[in-house]
TrEMBL record:
Recorded GO CC terms: plasma membrane
Principal location listed in the UniProt entry: membrane
Keyword Transmembrane helix belongs to the record: yes
Alphabetical keyword list: Cell membrane, Membrane, Transmembrane, Transmembrane helix
NCBIfam families recorded: flippase-like domain (TIGR00374)
Species annotation: Kosmotoga olearia (strain ATCC BAA-1733 / DSM 21960 / TBF 19.5.1)
Keyword Transmembrane helix: yes
Protein name: Integral membrane protein-like protein
Membrane topology: Multi-pass membrane protein
Listed InterPro entries: L-PG_synthase/AglD (IPR022791)
Locations listed in the record: Cell membrane
Residues that span the membrane, as ranges: 7-25, 31-56, 76-95, 124-145, 152-175, 228-249, 256-276
Amino acid sequence: MSKTLRNLLIVVLITIITLVIISHFSDFKTAFAYIIQASPFWVFITFVVAATAWVLEALTVKIFSKLSGLHAKFIYLLKLTIIGAFFSAITPFYTGGQPAQIAFMAKKRLSAGKASAMLMARFVAYQIVITVFGVVGVFSAYSFVSKEISNLALLAIFGFILNSGVLFFIIMFSISARTTEKIVRFFIFLLARFRVIKNPEEKIEKILFEVSRFNKSMKKSFETPKTFLLSLTLSFLQMMAVISIPYFASRSLGITVDYFQLISVQLVLFLIASMVPTPGASGASEGGFMLFFTPLFGAKTAAVMLLWRFFTYYMNILFGGFLTVIETHSHKS
C-alpha cells in the first residue's frame, strides 16, 4: 500500500469517527435536510471563494517563480497549488504539500533548487500573514470565545505562539547564516548522539546547502520590497477568502451573523487546529467548529460545519487527487 493511499484511508477513518461522535451531539438528518434546502446561489459563491483562494496562492507562487528564475506558466502553477493542497490535506501538520510540489516540478525537469526557493519564499509571506491575523484573532475574539467556551480559548494563544515561533526561526535563518549553522550542528550532533541519524557531517553539509540556497532566495525577495509587498497582499486576500467561507456557507442556510465576529472566531479555531497533528487537523477542526460556532449558528451549526469542511478540506482532496492522478499519468506517458 502506498503512503498516499494509507494517508487517505487515515483521513477517511478519522472523518467517520469524528462524524459518529458529533452525531451524538447533533441531529445529522436535520443537518442534511438543511443542506438540501440551501440556496444554490450562496453555495456557488462559497465555491467561488474557495477556488479564489487557490488562484491567489498560485499568483503568489508565480511572483516568486519569477524572482527565483523559474519559468513556469500560471496555469501549471495553479494545478501545482491544488496538488499541494491535496498532499497537505492528507499529511500531519499539512507538511506534505511542498515536498510533493517540488517532486512534481523535478519530474518536469524544473530546477528543484529554484522550486524550493520559490515555495519557501511563498511560505514565508503566508506565515507573516498568519502571524498578523493571529494577533487580530486572539485580541478580537478572545473575550467571546473564552466566555462561551471557558479556558479553551487559551489554546488559541498557544497556536499563535507556535505560528509566530515558526516565522521567527524562518526569519532568523534568512538573516543570520552563522547562527543557523550553529543551531543545525547542535541538533544534528544531538540526534547522532542518540543514534537517530548516521553520518552527521554529511547531513549537516546537505542541510547547510539548502539553507544557503534559502538565504539567497530570501535576500532576493527582500531586495524587491514592492514585489514582496504584493505577495503579502495576495497572501492576505487568500487568508481572507479561507476564513470567510463559514460566513458564505451560513448565508446559504439563511443565517445572518456579524461577519467580523465570525472571522475572528474562525481565526481562533484556525490557530488551535494548527497544533493538531492529524492529517488536515481532522477531528479537532470538526469538533472545534461545533464547539465554537454553536452560539452563533444554533441548530444549523452541524449543517454549516459540513459545508465549511467540504469547501476548505474535502474539495482540496477531490480536485487535488484528480489532478495528482492526471499529472502522474502525464509524466509516465
